[in-house]
Amino acid sequence: MSVELHQWPGTFHGSQAIVSAEVSQRQVAELAGALRRALAA
To answer: Which residues of the chain have pLDDT under 70?
Structure first.
């Protein structure tokens, strides 16, 4: 099983709940992309 670790300096656990923040939008986009790739495999 391959894994990736992504860190977003300055964020906190659950910070992606602040949907207007650019970093939150990047987090959600990266997570969605990872799920798409995993489910397509």
So the answer is: none
